[in-house]
Amino acid sequence: MKIHTRQNRTWGIIALCMILTLTLFATLSKAQAESNGPEASFSEAELAQMLAPIALYPDSLLTHILIASTYPLEIVQAKRLQSKNKLLPTEQLMEKAEDEDWDPSVTALLAFPTVLDKLSEDLEWTQDLGDAFLQDEERMLASIQTLRHQADEANSLAEMENMSVSRVDNQIIIEPVQKEIVYVPYYDPRVVYGHWAWYNYPPVYWAPYPYYVRPPYGHFYWHSGVHISFNYYFSAFHWHKRHVVVVHHKNARHYRHHGRIVTSHGAQRWQHKPAHRRGVAYRSPAVKHRYQSHRPSTLYSKQVRQADRHAIKHSSTSNKLHSKSIHTTRATRVNNLSHYNKQIAKQREQKFANQMHHKRNMQVSDRRVNKHKVGNNHAQTQQRLKQASSKPSHYNRVQTKPSQKPTHKTHNNLNSQQNKASRYNQVSQKPTHKAHNNLNSQQNKASHYNRVQTKPTQMRSSAQSHPKVHNQKNAHHKSNSQRSNGRSHTKQRD
Q: How far apart are CA 210 and CA 221, in angstroms?
C-alpha cells in the first residue's frame, strides 16, 4: 500500500508540472503573438496612406498592381526589359516577355509604362504594399472601398470621364468606358479625397506623369489609353468576400465583366507563389511561416538591427569617458606638435631672412666697390683725355714735320745739287774758287735751316692753306732736280 501511494504521488507531481509548463508556454506564445501582432500588421492610417495614389484606378489594373507588388524583384526585371526595348510596339514587347518566367500580372504591367516606373522607382512603397496585401487581403480591399467612398462624397468620381463608376451592394466598381481601351488616371490624393482623416499619415504623392493633360474642369489628368490585344482580363475583385479571383491567363484578351470572372468555370481565389518572390524576405513572421520561407523576416531583421544599434549606443556611453581621455591626449599631442611645427617654421623663416639680409649686404658692398672702380676708371679716362687734349699741337707738329721736312729736304737737296753742279762746273772751270763756293753753300744751308726753325708755323699754315701750290712747287723742284741730274750725268759721261 505504501509503495502504491508513493507512485501515485509521483505521478501526480509529474502531471502537475506538465500542466504548469503547458500553461506557461501558452501564455508566453500568446504574449509573443500579441507583441508581434501590432508591429507586423499595418494600421488603417498606413493602409490609406499607401493606397491613396492607386485606389481610384480601374479594377482590372488595380488587381494586377496588388498581385505584382508581391513580386518586387520581377517588377525590376520587367522595367529593365521595357527600358531596353522602348521602341518596340506593345504586342511585340508582350510576346518577348512571355519567354520570361514571370507572373502573368507582372507581364501585363509592361503595357503601362507610367505604372511600372512608379513601382520600380519606389521599391520600399511597392514592398510594403505587397506585404500588406499578403498579410491581410480583406483589410486591403476594405481600405480601397473606404477611399472610394470618401472620393465619392467629395464629388470627385463624377469627373472621371474615361471611366464608368457603378455601385453594387454599396461597393464602388470602376471600369473603362471603352472595354478594350484602359486609361490610367493621374490625380492629386491631397485634393481628390477631400478632408483627410489621418493628419499624421499624409497620402503618398507622386509627381504628375509626363505628357498627361487635364481637362478644363476636374482633378484628373489623362493620356492616351492602352489598347488591349494581349492577355489582360484574367483577374477581378470579389468585393463581397473581399479577395481577388483569377482564371487561366491564356486567351484572356477580350474584356470580361468582373462578375463573369468570379462566376466563370475554373475561377479560384488567387494564391501567392513563393517561387516568383525570388528570395525576397517577407515582412511578418506569420507570412514567413505560412509560405515556409527559410529567410528571416524583414521585421526580425529590423529588430536585430535595432538591438545592435542599442548595444552600440550602450557601449558608446560606457566608453565615453575613455574616448574623452583619448581625445584629450590626442588633442594635447596635436597641440604640442602644432606648437613644435610653428617654432620650426619660425626658425626657418628667421634663417631665411638672415640669409636674404646677408645677400643684400653683399650685393650693396659689391655695388659700392664696382662704383668706386668705375669712378677711378672714369677719372683716369678723364685725365687721359685731358692730356690728349693738351697735346694736340705737339702731336700735329710731330705729324706735320715729317710731311714738311721731306719737302724742305728735297728743296735743300735740289739746292745742294744745283750748288754741287755749279761748284763742279766752277771747279772744272775755276778750281781756285772751290773753298769760296763751299763756304757759300754752307752759309746758304745755315740760313735755310734757320729760316725753317724760326718759321715752322708759317710753313705749316702755308702748306695747309695752299696744298695744291705746294704740291706744284714740289713737282717743279722734282722736275728741275731731274733735269739737273740728267745734265750732270751727261757731263760726267762726256
A: 10
